[in-house]
Write a structure and sequence with these properties.
Elements: E1 7-8, E2 18-19, E3 24-25, H1 31-60, H2 67-94, H3 104-136, H4 141-144, H5 147-178, H6 183-221, H7 229-263, E4 270-271, H8 272-293, H9 298-309
Parallel strand pairs: 1-4
Antiparallel strand pairs: 2-3
Length: 323
């Protein structure tokens, strides 16, 4: 399948007028386009700063040196790199001729995007496994989830992501050489890559979080022996439901539209504005993750206040007990 069959409307560009004969940009970006990229640049800054706060907090404060938080810092590193690398590259991608001619720069951009985005998804999946053992099997948590196991999880998340990116880019290069005769490469790029990088992790996370929610409900019901039992049980059930709803809701809101579009693109062309908008929606999940996975915890909020206020430079705070 040729690259031109993926996009429709080659005479349209979100920021430029296109010379269809030479596929060159014929005028400077419009004012609306400049405002859009100021907005996208702001998202990049928020993504970088938010995840940098998480990285500094876990690295500096010894109280946060736990296997569970190592998974969070791995997620924060992936999301930080998305903000500092993928965001600027994606902005340049949209404003360049990459929509019309897939040169080396575009393939480098795609490979970095796939690696970091897939790593972010895998880290989220590993965090769900950590939460499962913490809630559903608390007595076995310290033996099942330790530094060694978490290290293996992190290495696998990054390693598998690199393999997925290599397979994705290799399939794309082969398609350029053999056109519509590359049936295996089309299957690899359009079907297998989304399955392993998104749909399978999503199914795992949905199953795990459903189990966590059910167990949390049972635990809340089992403590109804005190005078405040009804209030406590209701509060715990609501907190569990709200947390899981925010986690999965934000993730699916950002990622599901893009992968549905990507999966059904074989049925017809995808317009440039739709594809680019959905791609930016997926990248925004890296901005939300620090708020979802860090700001829910009081000790992280305390660490953030210390960092933002500058007290971290006073020294002797790494052993401080965070609320």
């Amino acid at each position: 399948m040729a690259e031109e069959s993926f996009y429709v409307g080659f005479d349209f560009h979100p920021c430029y007028e296109i010379n269809n004969a030479s596929r060159t940009l014929t005028r400077s970006p419009s004012r609306v386009c400049v405002l859009v990229y100021i907005f996208l640049g702001s998202l990049s800054v928020v993504t970088v700063c938010g995840n940098l706060l998480v990285i500094i907090s876990i690295t500096y404060f010894k109280q946060l040196h736990t296997p569970s938080n190592y998974l969070i810092i791995s997620l924060a590193v992936a999301d930080f790199l998305v903000g500092i690398m993928v965001f600027p590259l994606s902005m340049s991608f949209t404003l360049s001729s990459c929509l019309y001619y897939r040169d080396l720069f575009c393939k480098i951009r795609d490979s970095i995007d796939v690696i970091l985005s897939t790593t972010s998804i895998f880290n989220l999946c590993c965090i769900s496994v950590d939460r499962y053992y913490a809630v559903c099997q608390p007595l076995m948590y310290r033996t099942k989830i330790n530094t060694h196991v978490v290290g293996v999880m992190i290495l696998m998340s990054w390693g598998v992501s690199v393999l997925v990116a290599i397979g994705f880019i290799t399939a794309e290069i082969h398609q350029e050489k053999c056109g519509e005769n590359c049936y295996f490469d089309v299957v690899l790029e359009k079907i297998l890559a989304p399955v392993f990088s998104f749909y399978l992790p999503v199914i795992i996370m949905l199953y795990i979080y459903l189990r966590i929610f059910l167990v949390a409900q049972k635990q809340a019901q089992s403590i109804q022996n005190t005078t405040k039992a009804v209030v406590t049980a209701s509060s715990m059930e609501w907190k569990a439901a709200k947390t899981l709803a925010v986690v999965m809701g934000a993730f699916l809101m950002c990622w599901l539209p893009f992968f549905l579009c990507f999966s059904f693109q074989l049925l017809g062309g995808v317009s440039v504005p739709v594809y680019e908008t959905l791609n930016w929606l997926t990248l925004s999940n890296s901005m939300f993750n620090p708020f979802i996975y860090a700001f829910f915890y009081r000790w992280f909020r305390s660490a953030f206040r210390i960092i933002i206020s500058g007290k971290i430079f006073q020294g002797h705070l790494s052993n401080s007990k965070l609320l």
